[in-house]
Specification:
The chain has 124 residues and is an all-beta fold. Helices cover 0% and strands 48% of the residues. The strands form 2 sheets. Strands 2, 4, 5, 6, 9, 10 and 11 form a 7-stranded mixed sheet that branches. A 4-stranded antiparallel sheet has the order 1-3-8-7, with no helix packed on it. Strand 4 and strand 5 form a beta hairpin.
């Protein structure tokens, strides 16, 4: 069972930046695809970004393209989400997720393990 722990959330003004981290408990992390999802109050959980096992392939939802960057460090069992030019509509609980299949995944049901989430709040 892989455990995922997110960190780096917080309160930031619009236009600011945050870097989320997700640390995995298992070395098998390096074989997994990883994703970041977010859920705003009253809304469904949606994918934000995803990355394949090697880091060569990435996916971004349209609303964050050019502002967010997903990356991973397999030596540290960690995936990151750099968030720049934040907007109030980015406010949500952000979850990282791991998929045993290593190829790029961007649908919620394709992920096997989930973190508890970290709150990101962007003030206007």
């Amino acid at each position: 069972q892989v455990q995922l722990v997110e960190s780096g959330g917080g309160l930031v003004q619009a236009g600011g930046s945050l870097r989320l981290s997700c640390a995995a408990s298992e070395r098998t992390f390096r074989m997994y695809a990883m994703g970041w999802f977010r859920q705003a109050p009253g809304k469904e959980r949606d994918v934000v970004a995803a990355i394949n096992w090697s880091g060569e392939n990435t996916y971004y939802t349209d609303s964050v393209k050019g502002r967010f960057t997903i990356s991973r460090d397999n030596a540290k069992n960690t995936v990151y989400l750099q968030m720049n030019s934040l907007k109030p509509e980015d406010t949500a609980v952000y979850h990282c997720a791991a998929a045993r299949a290593g190829a790029l995944r961007f649908r919620e049901f394709e992920y096997d393990y989930w973190g508890q989430g970290t709150q990101v709040t962007v003030s206007s």
